[in-house]
């Protein structure tokens, strides 16, 4: 078994993904990363390691004319050669504003709809350690906080913005099974080992895009200081994600109580305090409809003030009461 295929099946187990009985939508652009993922999945299917229904999904952004058409044809022919089902869509990406973000939104809208239609358990993408490092640097340059610098998760719920009248589909997972172990060089080498001439998007060489400049200029420069800089950034992003998850769990544990301990609340930073108050209201009140920042600030003032027995009224027919060093919720009696 090729080491790339072995790496994929190892990560598959690590992510606790199903080995049979489900449908998986594989997002394939025709580039090395997603093509290598598809080829490795085919290898595992042929070895009967995976007994899953795979559907290849290709989104044509329509931004490069005949080159985009050629990408779609490449993916269609490869899917047919390997015996995979295939579906595609040609989009009309809005060119005003952030083109890269618009293209990403259109692609994920397509993948969400396709996954819902095919009743897919998950959408698989070919993101690698390089994508993780590039995203970390992009967010660092933009001045993002810890949340923005935290690693992309290898698995999460796939969600997109939907209109109010959109049917409530069961949300599939978004899975990046190459993210924590494969480099872009690995995917290219694996494709070449199978004599697959993957597609190259010329927009990936357009230095008007920040990500391209990071990939082609900044990372090579940083590699002169640390040849393993891609892995280093990916590891740093993962550590930030782990710390953020731990902190979030601590705050959630504090918020998921019937009574909120004022002493513990006062020990938090303001942003953390607001997050706990909001989650506490949601946990005990069932929703946050009508609750605004003015309510949160009023509850904070109530908690940190010296007097007890005071209350803050919040929607809907609830009040927050301070007593014996704790905050509690009380239903307001409404006269008929």
What is the structure about, briefly put?
The chain is α/β, with parallel strands linked by helices. The protein has two domains: 3-232, 3-Layer(aba) Sandwich (Rossmann fold), CATH 3.40.50.620; 256-331, Uridine Diphospho-n-acetylenolpyruvylglucosamine Reductase, domain 3 (2-Layer Sandwich), CATH 3.30.465.
Descriptive notes:
The protein is 49% helix and 15% strand. The strands form two sheets. The chain has a six-stranded mixed sheet, with helices on both faces. Strands 7-10-9-8 form a four-stranded antiparallel sheet. The protein folds into two domains: 3-232, 3-Layer(aba) Sandwich (Rossmann fold); 256-331, Uridine Diphospho-n-acetylenolpyruvylglucosamine Reductase, domain 3 (2-Layer Sandwich), CATH 3.30.465.60. The relative contact order is 0.10. Mean pLDDT is 87; it is low at 161-169. The protein is elongated. The protein has twelve helices and ten strands. It has 336 residues and is α/β, with parallel strands linked by helices.
């Amino acid at each position: 078994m090729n080491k790339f295929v072995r790496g994929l099946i190892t990560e598959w187990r690590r992510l606790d993904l199903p080995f049979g009985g489900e449908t998986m939508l594989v997002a394939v652009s025709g580039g090395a990363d997603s093509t290598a993922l598809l080829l490795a999945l085919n290898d595992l299917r042929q070895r009967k390691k995976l007994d899953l229904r795979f559907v290849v999904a290709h989104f044509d952004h329509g931004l490069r004319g005949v080159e985009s058409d050629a990408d779609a044809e490449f993916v269609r022919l490869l899917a047919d050669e390997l015996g995979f089902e295939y579906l595609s869509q040609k989009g009309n990406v809005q060119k005003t504003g952030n083109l890269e973000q618009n293209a990403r939104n259109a692609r994920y809208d397509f993948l969400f709809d396709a996954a819902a239609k095919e009743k897919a358990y998950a959408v698989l993408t070919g993101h690698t350690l390089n994508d993780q490092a590039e995203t970390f640097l992009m967010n660092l340059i933009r001045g993002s906080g810890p949340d923005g610098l935290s690693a992309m998760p290898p698995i999460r719920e796939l969600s997109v913005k939907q209109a109010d009248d959109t049917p409530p589909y069961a949300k599939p997972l978004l899975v990046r099974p190459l993210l924590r172990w494969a480099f872009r060089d690995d995917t290219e080498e694996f494709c070449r080992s199978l004599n697959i001439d993957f597609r190259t998007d010329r927009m990936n060489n357009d230095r008007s895009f920040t990500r391209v400049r990071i990939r082609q200029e900044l990372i090579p420069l940083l590699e002169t200081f640390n040849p393993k800089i891609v892995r280093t950034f990916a590891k740093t992003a993962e550590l930030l994600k782990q710390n953020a998850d731990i902190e979030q769990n601590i705050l959630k544990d504090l918020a998921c109580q019937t009574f909120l301990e004022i002493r513990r609340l006062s020990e938090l930073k303001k942003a953390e305090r607001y997050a706990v108050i909001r989650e506490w209201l949601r946990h005990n009140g069932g929703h946050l409809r009508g609750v605004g920042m003015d309510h949160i600030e009023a509850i904070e003032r109530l908690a940190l003030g010296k007097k007890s027995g005071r209350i803050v009224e919040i929607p809907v027919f609830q009040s927050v009461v301070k007593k014996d060093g704790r905050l509690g919720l009380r239903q307001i009696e409404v006269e008929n």
